[in-house]
Design goal:
Number of strands: 8
Strand content: 35-45%
Structural class: alpha+beta
Radius of gyration: 32 Å
Shape: rod-shaped
């Protein structure tokens, strides 16, 4: 019983000292926070898109389809949450009452909040084959910025802020690579279009396919919420040291008891 009390006291002292000296790290749902250079992704894609207004949209929908390409860099802070910066660009097509079909280039750079819906609902699994990732973002769009488009469309460069919302479907090919299908839309003031629109807003819709490469640390480590793996190891070392100290104290107490018994025996003999 005495040994058990000494052990509990030693562990309590070690825990108290370690908790005071070790700052807590941010964590979420039992996962140890990763480093800045961990869990990064590079994504490239290409596909088709179209632009519509909330007013009338003359011309056939099929003739409005044009191309898009995109490049993105994503940092995951947790198996569920991450941030992405993406540059998308290509050409949109609209119809003008006087000039007919008009095409114009655009670039849209935006920062997106990424939510891994599959990990959120189903729990983190390193071997998961499919991830559903909705996202929402905000950025800056420029259109009709080339000399040839200035001449063709009889207007200059147009610029505006824009919002984006979409759904990224990720199919795991290997620990490093995913195949992606991304569906997204953007909304901006109609003035960003070089083609006159009778609506107040322009909506861009696109569907692209591409690949993701994950680099540096790719997985996630479960741990005690609020502490890193190094903190947990430090706690284990502190407990081991305290147990060793308790054992040494027990040996020292036994030796003192033996010396006291010997002294009492000598006194009784005299």
């Amino acid at each position: 019983m005495k040994k058990l009390i000494l052990l509990f006291a030693a562990v309590a002292l070690a825990t108290s000292a370690w908790a005071q000296d070790t700052p807590k790290k941010p964590s979420f749902a039992g996962f140890v926070s990763n480093g800045f250079w961990d869990n990064w992704e590079i994504t490239v894609g290409a596909g088709a898109g179209t632009a519509l207004s909330n007013g009338t949209n003359p011309g056939s929908f099929g003739n409005r389809i044009n191309f898009e390409a995109n490049f993105g860099l994503t940092k995951w802070f947790h198996p569920v949450t991450g941030m992405r910066i993406q540059l998308q660009g290509g050409r949109f097509a609209n119809y003008d009452a006087a000039q007919g079909k008009m095409t114009w280039p655009y670039l849209f750079v935006h920062t997106d909040f990424m939510l891994n819906f599959s990990n959120w609902v189903g729990g983190y699994r390193e071997d998961r084959a499919y991830y559903a990732v909705p996202f929402a973002g905000f950025g800056y769009m420029a259109s009709n910025f080339t000399d040839s488009s200035h001449e063709d469309n009889l207007t200059g460069t147009h610029q505006s802020f824009a919002f984006t919302l979409g759904w990224l479907n990720k199919f795991r090919l290997s620990p490093s690579f995913d195949f992606n299908i991304e569906l997204k839309g953007l909304i901006a003031p109609s003035r960003v279009s070089p083609v006159a629109m009778d609506g107040s807003y322009m909506f861009g819709f696109s569907a692209t396919a591409g690949f993701t490469y994950r680099f540096n640390k790719r997985g996630w480590q479960r741990g005690v919420a609020g502490y890193t793996a190094a903190d947990i190891q430090a706690f284990q070392d502190a407990v081991a040291a305290s147990m060793a100290t308790a054992a040494a104290m027990e040996v020292e107490n036994a030796q003192l008891a033996q010396q006291l018994a010997a002294s009492q025996a000598e006194l009784a003999a005299t």
